Amino acid sequence: MYETLTYIGGVHKHEEMTELIEDLGGFVLQQNISQMDLVLTLAVPMEDVEKVDEKARELLGEIKIAPMAGTEIAIVSPTLARQHLPHSACDISEYLRRFGAKDNMIGLSRGAGKGIARISEDEKRLIEEHDLAVFALGSFRECLMNKTHLFQDIEIPVVVTGAPEMDLGDLPGAMAYVNGLGRIPRRLKRGEDIRALKKLVEVVEDILDTRRKEMMDDPPIVPSILVKTEIENQVEAVKEIYSPAPIVSQLDGVRVKLDYDTYKDQIAEVVVNEYRLGDVSEIKKSKMYDYILVKLLPETSII
Fold first, then answer.
1. How far, in Å, are 27, 91, 234, 279 from residue 133 at the CA level?
2. Phi and psi at residue 175, in whole multiples of 5°?
3. What are the φ and ψ backbone dihedral angles of 14, each rounded to 5 degrees?
4. Is 162 helix (H, G, I), strand (E, B) or coil?
5. Are 135 and 76 in contact (CB under 8 A)?
6. How far apart are CA 277 and CA 230, in angstroms?
7. Which of 66, 108, 186, 251 has the smallest number of CB atoms closer than 10 Å to its CB?
8. What is the C-alpha to C-alpha distance for residues 227 and 292, in angstroms, rounded to an integer?
9. Which Pfam families match (predicted)?
10. DSSP character string of 71-133
11. Cβ atoms within 10 A of the Cβ of 196, count?
């Protein structure tokens, strides 16, 4: 099993860190350079975490456990229109990224209005392509209770945020509820806001850890982190993608930001641990810009 980490340090001699990770059989999931600062999202074997920590201290950097790394999270708001005060949803998205998550903001096309809010089947399918969804709702108890149909039959874990204190039983379909994050017409910078965001991080990390443990009983035939690396090495078109994250790792697959109709056959022919990717996964068209979504099959599927 791999442990996901975030390395924060300087650009100077950072190649020593990347070389160590490769020597240990680990992977660099994402690299962000801002002037002289470097942030690496890593995955290394659990038994080698101490070696990475020693190298980080040698380079005057810092290593943090990043349970959300290697996951993709949907931040869903009834609408992203300015009059609906999407400030909190934006800050939730930014805060989760600090802990290694790759998240996407999703605004529903007909989600506004206590009595008329709707979610389409395509929007549901798009949300379900992620590992977890955070529904950023409003400030009134009645409003939240009248919008449970937006997430009641979503098939991935759902965390709901809102302002009032509520019992989870009042929100059927939600796995967790975090209060203190309603419709706020400002940035979430105050003490109570930061505490609510930290609580949200704890809840999301616990849910993702639980999912990982459940998957260990019947893990994917090949790990998604390795699939990401092999696609990068074997599909030349990936090098021409301008997105900061051309391939996004998920718990049970990857999202490849290439056109499905053009590149699906190339993706299927990628070899991972002597397996043809098309034989050990389901490759389908994503609801997001017609990207390629690869969902890995569990080990029991080949018995």
1. 26, 15, 31, 29
2. -85, -25
3. -65, -20
4. strand
5. yes
6. 10
7. 186
8. 13
9. MCR_C
10. -EEEEEES---GGG-THHHHHHHHHHHTTT-EEEEEE-TT--STTT----HHHHHHHHTSSEE
11. 22
Report the alpha-carbon distance of residue 156 to residue 159 in Å, rounded. 10
The sheet that has 2-10: what strands, in order across it?
Answer: 27-34, 37-45, 2-10, 62-65
List CB contacts of 256: < 8 A, sequence separation 6 or more.
231, 235, 238, 246, 247, 263, 267, 291, 292, 293, 294
pTM above 0.85, yes or no: yes
User: How many residues make up the chain in this entry?
Assistant: 303
Task: Output Rg (C-alpha) for the chain, integer angstroms.
Answer: 20
CA 90/CA 88 separation, integer angstroms? 5
pLDDT at 31: 79
Per-residue pLDDT tens over the stretch 263-274: 999 999 999 999
Q: What's the Cα-to-Cα distance from 199 to each of 6, 56, 71, 130, 168, rounded to whole Å?
A: 20, 28, 19, 21, 15
